[in-house]
Design a protein that fits this description.
Layout: H1 3-30, H2 36-69, H3 72-75, H4 77-100, H5 104-136, H6 139-156, H7 158-166
Helix pairs in contact: 1-2, 1-5, 1-6, 2-4, 2-6, 4-5, 6-7
The protein binds fe (ii) ion (FE2) (2 copies).
Length: 167
Amino acid sequence: MNKAIEVLDKEHRVITEMLDRTDEMFKSILNSDGDIGDVKKQLEFFRFYADEYHHNKEEKILFPEMVKRNEMLEFGIIHEMLENHEDFRELLGEVNELIDTGSFLEAYDKFREYSRLLLEHIAVEDEEVFQIAETLFSDDELQTIYYHFEDCDLELGKEEKLKLEEI
Ligand SMILES: [Fe+2]
Ligand SMILES: [Fe+2]
């Protein structure tokens, strides 16, 4: 696996792990031995790490480069991926709103929907989108994409990203 895809793959693994942990936290809340503040912090993680660090790399760097190589992708799988990202933003907002109104059970249901769709999305990217990317670009081009990913992290804060990964 080249370095650019490796970055996205690692982010996918961090996100997957956090989905599991958040699920556990929700369960504790529903058994009345958890702190809702912890769940809110986890949701901030998804907004910041999954959406800003990760989805930005795909939306602003990888996907546009892929579409430049193969215009058909814009109306196919890439379109689908972008739509999913929008749905994730909406769902996450809804989970937050439900928590704020004290509807924890509904919030958990919504979170489970978010989690299920996000895991499906990650599987499609791992198994299809990244494979397509590897056939579209040369090693040098992938290396350039990797540098753009690095810039993206630097802009948002590399330290901050490492801290989020360490949690
Ligand atoms: Fe994505
Ligand atoms: Fe992704």
